[in-house]
Design a protein that fits this description.
The complex is a heterodimer.
Chain A lengths: L1 H16 L7 E6 L9 E6 L5 E5 L4 E5 L4 E6 L7 E6 L2 E6 L2 E6 L9 E6 L12 E6 L5 E5 L2 E2 L19 H6 L8 E2 L7 E5 L5 E6 L7 E3 L5 E5 L8 E6 L28 H7 L5 E3 L8 E6 L13 E5 L4 E10 L2 E11 L7 E6 L5 E5 L9 E7 L7 E6 L3 E6 L11 E8 L9 E7 L1 E6 L5 E6 L6 E7 L14 E6 L11 H4 L14 E2 L3 E3 L4 E5 L4 E3 L2 E3 L10 E3 L4 E11 L3 E10 L7 E5 L2 E7 L11 E9 L2 E10 L5 E9 L1
Parallel strand pairs in A: 36-41
Antiparallel strand pairs in A: 1-26, 2-3, 3-4, 4-5, 6-7, 7-8, 8-9, 10-11, 11-14, 12-13, 14-15, 16-17, 17-18, 18-19, 20-21, 21-22, 22-23, 23-34, 24-25, 25-26, 27-28, 28-32, 29-30, 29-33, 31-32, 33-34, 35-38, 37-47, 38-41, 39-40, 41-46, 42-45, 42-47, 43-44, 43-46
Chain B lengths: L1 H14 L2 E5 L1 E2 L3 E2 L3 E4 L4 E7 L9 E3 L4 H9 L14 E4 L8 E7 L5 E6 L10 E6 L14 H7 L13 E4 L9 E5 L4 E6 L4 E7 L3 E2 L1 H4 L8 E2 L2 E5 L6 E2 L9 E8 L2 E8 L2 E9 L5 E7 L7 E4 L5 E3 L3 E3 L2 E4 L1 H4 L1 E7 L5
Parallel strand pairs in B: 1-5, 4-10
Antiparallel strand pairs in B: 2-3, 5-8, 6-7, 6-9, 9-10, 11-12, 12-13, 13-14, 14-17, 15-16, 18-23, 19-20, 20-21, 21-22, 22-27, 23-26, 24-27, 25-26
Classes of the chains: A mainly beta, B mainly beta.
Chain lengths: 658, 340
Amino acid sequence: MKRTIFLLFLIATLSVRGAGINDYYKVENIPAPKGLDVQIGGLTFLPDGRLAACFHRGEVYTYNPKTKIWKLFADGLHEPLGIIAEDNHTLVVMQRPELTRLRDTDGDGEADHYQTISDDFGMTGNYHEFSFGPTRDKAGNYYIGLNLASSGASIRPEIRGEFRHYGISREQFYKNHRSGSGRMYSATPYRGWIMKVTPQHKTIPFAPGFRSPNGVNFDMQGRLWASDNQGDWLGTSKLFHVKEGNFYGHPASLVWTKEWEKGRNPLKVPPAEFDEKRTRAAVLFPQGSMANSPTQMLSDTTKGKFGPFTEQLLVGEMNRPRIMRILVDEVAGETQGACLPFMDNGGLRRGMHRFAFAPDGSLWVGQTHLSWVGANGLQRISWTGKMPMSVSAMNLSDTGFKISFTKPLSQVADENFAFQRYYYKYHQGYGSPQLGKEPIKITALNLAPDRKSVSIDLEKLNPGYVYQLNLQNITASDKTPALNTYICYTLNRLTNGDDKAPHLTTGNSSKSRPARSAAKVVQAKPTALKGADQIFEAEDAGRKGPSLAKNNGGYTGKGFVDFQANSGEHLNWIIQTKSAGDSSLSFRYALAGGNRPLKLKVNGKVIAKALPFSSTGSWSNWKSISIDTPLKVGLNEIFLESTGTSGPNIDHLLIRRK
Amino acid sequence: MRFLVILYTAVTLSAAPLKINIGTLPGLQYDKPRFEVQPGQEVMLTFKNADEMAHNLAIVVPGKRLEVVQAALTMPPDSNYIPKSKSVLWHTKVLKPDESAELKFEAPKEKGIYPYVCTFPGHGLIMYGAMYVGIKMPKLAQDENVSPMARAQSSNKNLHAWPHRRPLMYRIFMPDASPAAIAVALPHGVSYCWDAGTCHLRYAWIGGFVDPMPVWKANGNGLAKIIGTKFWTGSKDFPFHKKTPSDFKPQFQGYRKIDGHPEFHYTIGDIDIYERSTALPSGMGLTRHFRIPNITYPLHITIASVNTKVSKGKINQGVATLTSEEAKSFTITHRHTHGK
């Protein structure tokens, strides 16, 4: 009942404001065959108008939107994450071990020939070595992206391809992969690369420096793009314009370049050396507010059937029900630009993984999760024909930005445009806070005669910053409020070609002080142990670093805590007892993969140097790990600390007196 | 009212023998993994062999299944594979496909878990079930007294949008193989692991197929689990050579599906090798069919184990040598030899 009232309220609010996303775009759920795990790895339309989709458990189906009939085309593939049609009977799929052509040679609608186009790259069997793509250029070359391995797990006893890891043998590494592997590693060729595969099936290393290039695609102008995910060496998630031979910032893959000195460990090289070599991302997606895990990008090829954003790039996001738009800007011969939300909610699910435009101009989207944040299913988005009020372009000028809109603006003033800037540090650590954050003053503002664009001069304009713009109370002259008001422009290069940004590696911007990055500290409060068995929730414990969360179900109490950094964070309980005696401490936790041991101290004494929190299979699967320890009369401090490998999500501590 | 119904049922049960029907499933399985009777109860058990191979059913003393199975291994075919032993309580003869037999008996007075098993050589390692006498049955998924396949299937939701079928193949992370492994389920309960990383057969097993969920349930950080019993394991190294062992560097090219069976294609220099495996109709092994149409030199094959037969060529010190003509088309058969 409560929920119904809330929904009614929500609908009422939307209709009053008249600017809900569903006024412009409708979202429809497409039912999939019963029994299918609808985690979608790839979507494409065949020339005859049927959809082809590949799924987590290795199936490829076709779907006829007219008859609504699904038909199995192929099965048995290993985590296919991309699909492209060569003709109505031939699909090319990227699966973990290879790029494969699926051919239906007898015309029964089912593939009978699975032809290996390229398996000319290594696999250690590490779960994070996903294979992405393919996309195809005009000459018929395919491009694929090879994910790095994650230190969340080791390699397998047998691997495919050469093993090389800074002088460590494969056997040594197999036993102890954490000895200097770095967070993400490239122990076999060509993990961390975008590869080119020619029509003659020759595989050529194209560009190194990637971590997790989930989206690899060409746009309508023939530019190759790849998205990458926040992590080590990536201060925040990114979109790269990829050119042959350039290096895109994650150094693990550099060991497979010809120039790399054998045995040299990229982790021991100063970041400034890599910063010199790297090509910065064209667009940064601020973590937490814009995107946490960007996915595929796709040009709007519908010539207006999907609304006013023809030829712009759309990019998906895993962690929230969002599709973004990219406003590309060519500045002094280089590509950079802005991102902004295009669609939020409106019936979309999370896990916005793969996209394809149907011949009728509707956008089909497939979701996935692979046990991370996301969802599953297939949806179709169509434009209602109504024109939204939104930003259609953002271009750098000599003195600021020119911002264009889909409709003429009503009156505008400085206070309608709130600018700030910040940057993300380029370093080996995982992610980066927003540094050098400061508001930027507007010095001049001019509305164009057609009222469809505004030119703004800014007080400070320097390379190496994200310029974030929040539109405030912008409406069109027909009173339509602006739909998406949060835009982030990545300024790599000024119009005069200047792209110097030494602060990106040193972490010192010219004038401004670093933004507050200290981990949140909550002091533990003493809690009395009353019975023989008692639960002490992690969310009520003291902590430094771990944040409160409730995004994975199955926890007790009000939520759980989520470790953020690799080391130096802790969680502590202060337990008051009336008697001394042996107790069992049982920590309930979830961990999707790998091992994340924590140091356990009780009353300052180390009880376990590395309490082995091993994988529970998923973030919503909770298990407990127990250890016995004596507790004294009075106050006892139970202290869990991260020591290099972050930590699992902790739900609670159960104390059982013996 | 309800009480009356229960009373009535109880009366009926004690009056007539308890009827138990057991059939077969493909892949060396009874279709009933277990059943429950009361001590001393009259039982009429009907066993119908719906499989493509011969089976029997013997009810044995608790804990004696493997002993009986071992004793039956070396017996001649006319023995019905039933050892003369106090451990065998009741049994049918060996039934051909579509035959059936009845066993009428009074259940043991002594409570216990009495295995029933097919003693046809090799089958009894995986083809068995449990008669619970006066003991409550645990959840099937946790029942150690039924075959591993039955246990796995009980927790096995249908994994796809189609019914269970064979042949079936998964490219999936497999134990004891490279990360580019392929698991194939053939008819008759035979399965094998072919490695697209090394281009050769790694091992084969009988029973169920694999549990893929350790890989599929999350992001791939797991291995598929073999359900059944391995009967053949090949070497780690590619078994063919021209002059010296391991002088071939095979390159995987993909596969075609022929009646659902993959025919793998790989190349060594200029020669194309095609390899397709089929199950022996008995379910006790598999035959690998090789075609090398453009080979121009003799081929040497290292034979890893005794239960291997190459259809052509000469064998010398564990290496079969085929002339280029013989190598154009030949088979290799691996049989389950029951641990001999």
